[in-house]
């Protein structure tokens, strides 16, 4: 039943498209002997933000128990901020943290440091980004709430919402990021030398 739900296909579409964009951009620029990280950040942000914000709007409009209404511009903006920072934490910042772990001697193996970075950086970002997510949804669900009521809403569900987002981000950017990198490396090593 779960795998037949529209939301399952929507979420798979968002993350699948994001990884396809990341892999295509990285392969293209590495083939051209250029550092792909900033191109990858820009490209994956555009793909993920566009599809992710549409996904979140659809979820908010269909699961809040009220008839769908106009989505506020400020909620769009907060979702864009959240997604751009999440993409940065998922694709751009882990290599920097990997360098730090190796250079500081905290972790000896670059491979281990890369895995640790890919797991820790995306979930750590959610400590800051979860309130942005909660506020964006509250601005849609409770359009007339006061600033104090919104702050209370963020405070009341922060821990629970952060734990949920950790699980989602750990799967989507942590574990999937490690698997994606491993598969991309295997495929590149298998096919790129033959094409050079």
Q: What gap, in angstroms, lies between the N and C termini?
A: 47 Å
The total of helices stands at: 5
**How helical, in percent, are the residues?**
over 70%
Strand content: under 5%
| Principal-axis shape | globular
Uncertain ranges: none
How can the largest sheet be summarized? none
Gyration radius over CA: 19 Å
Can you write the helix and strand succession as a string?
A: HHHHH
Number of strands: 0
Whole-number mean pLDDT: 89
SS-based class? mainly alpha
Question: Could you characterize what this model shows?
Answer:
The chain is an all-alpha fold and 196 residues long. It contains five helices and no strands. The relative contact order is 0.10. The mean pLDDT is 89.
Q: What keyword list fits this structure?
A:
mainly alpha, 196 residues
Summarize the structure.
This protein is mainly alpha-helical and 196 residues long. 84% of the residues lie in helices and 0% in strands.
Q: How are the elements arranged and paired?
A:
Elements: H1 6-31, H2 37-63, H3 73-103, H4 110-141, H5 147-195
């Amino acid at each position: 039943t779960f795998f037949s739900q529209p939301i399952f296909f929507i979420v798979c579409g968002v993350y699948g498209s994001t990884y396809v964009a990341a892999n295509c951009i990285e392969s293209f620029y590495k083939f051209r002997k250029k550092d792909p990280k900033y191109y990858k950040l820009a490209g994956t942000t555009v793909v993920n933000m566009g599809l992710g914000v549409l996904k979140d709007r659809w979820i908010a409009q269909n699961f809040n128990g009220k008839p769908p209404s106009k989505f506020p511009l400020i909620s769009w903006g907060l979702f864009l901020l959240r997604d751009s920072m999440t993409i940065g934490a998922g694709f751009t910042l882990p290599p920097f943290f990997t360098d730090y772990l190796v250079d500081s001697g905290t972790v000896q193996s670059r491979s281990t440091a890369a895995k640790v970075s890919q797991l820790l950086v995306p979930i750590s970002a959610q400590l800051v980004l979860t309130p942005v997510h909660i506020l964006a949804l509250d601005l849609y669900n409770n359009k007339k709430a006061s600033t104090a009521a919104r702050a209370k809403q963020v405070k009341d569900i922060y821990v629970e919402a952060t734990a949920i987002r950790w699980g989602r981000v750990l799967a989507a950017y942590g574990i999937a990021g490690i698997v994606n990198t491993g598969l991309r490396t295997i495929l590149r090593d298998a096919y790129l030398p033959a094409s050079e």
